[in-house]
Design brief:
By secondary structure, the chain is an alpha/beta fold. It is built from 12 helices and 12 strands.
């Protein structure tokens, strides 16, 4: 998705001379084509995360349309106050693009893991929160964020992501994207966990379950109609995300369902329990360590669903 980010941003910059790219001394081997073509509209602020956010907000206040690209954990944690006050409070149209969501930087340890960022951004007023799952969703959410002209946070992984969707996603993308329709189990997945969710659905279908799967590229504002409809039409509803269980997609769905009194007989959030990853390993290793591999999730979903029959 990083390549899609630069390609889409380049197209937007050709159409709109206000579009700029800020980086925090990251993105090498990815952002150079933009720098080469647009020169002064590219700025490497350096390793200074608070200044990075404030500088981007200032450009937006002056009429520019900055896209600020940095590592998720550094940008959101170190720049939280600046995001809240300089971007959200003043409603400056900065699009924050965070690379390395979840366990993308798995071997680097807790300093680089990003398991609270969605919760943080959801708690801030005046900002849209996107978690694209593949290049098609990435292009769609970038164009949506640009067209809406308001603060936005886009969270992506780090590796080269093969397509999941067979075609383009309609813009603006603030609705859940139906991936498969079933009658018994509903799965809502966002971002990098959509690939695992596709595998989970396949494993459950092999066991005889009828499973619906929705991708949720926009976590805030949430597609309330899709969540409520899915809960009403399935006996079991599950959420999947590469994020802590507190504050992310699962929490957003649970809050909505509780407020409407529509919790289905079985509801469970799959994410990282409130814990640091105190082991070193790849993203796949970390997911398995926390019980989030497709095989582990499918087995747990099956057991929860069968117990409710």
């Amino acid at each position: 998705m990083r390549n899609t980010f630069v390609q889409t941003l380049t197209q937007l910059a050709r159409e709109d001379p206000r579009v700029m790219l800020m980086i925090g001394d990251t993105g090498f081997s990815v952002v150079e084509p933009f720098e080469k073509e647009f020169g002064p509209r590219f700025v490497n602020v350096g390793i200074a995360e608070q200044n990075f956010i404030t500088f981007s907000a200032g450009l937006a206040a002056a009429g520019m349309r900055p896209f600020a690209y940095n590592v998720v954990s550094f940008m959101t944690l170190r720049g939280a106050e600046q995001i809240l006050l300089d971007v959200c409070y003043q409603e400056n149209p900065v699009v924050l693009v965070g690379v390395g969501g979840g366990f993308a930087y798995g071997p680097a340890g807790p300093t680089h893991h990003s398991l609270q960022d969605i919760a943080m951004m959801r708690a801030f007023p005046n900002i849209d929160v996107y978690c694209p799952a593949d290049p098609a969703e990435m292009e769609a959410v970038m164009r949506t964020a640009y067209l809406r002209g308001r603060p936005a946070y886009i969270r992506i992984g780090r590796s080269v992501d093969a397509p999941i969707h067979s075609g383009k996603i309609q813009v603006p993308v603030q609705k859940a994207v139906p991936m498969a329709q079933g009658t018994e189990i509903g799965i809502l997945a966002c971002g990098t966990m959509l690939r695992e969710a596709v595998e989970v659905r396949g494993l459950l279908e092999k066991q005889g379950a009828s499973v619906s799967l929705y991708s949720v590229p926009c976590v805030q504002p949430l597609d309330e109609e899709a969540v409520l409809s899915c809960a009403a039409s399935h006996r079991a509803l599950f959420t999947m995300e590469e994020h802590g269980v507190s504050g992310g997609l699962g929490t957003a769905a649970a809050e909505l369902l509780a407020e409407h009194g529509q919790l289905p007989p079985v509801f469970h959030r799959y994410g990282v329990q409130d814990s640091f990853a105190m082991v070193t390993g790849s993203r796949d290793y970390q997911l398995r360590y926390f019980g989030l591999s497709p095989e582990q999730v499918a087995a747990d979903m099956w057991e929860r669903w069968r117990e409710a029959q």
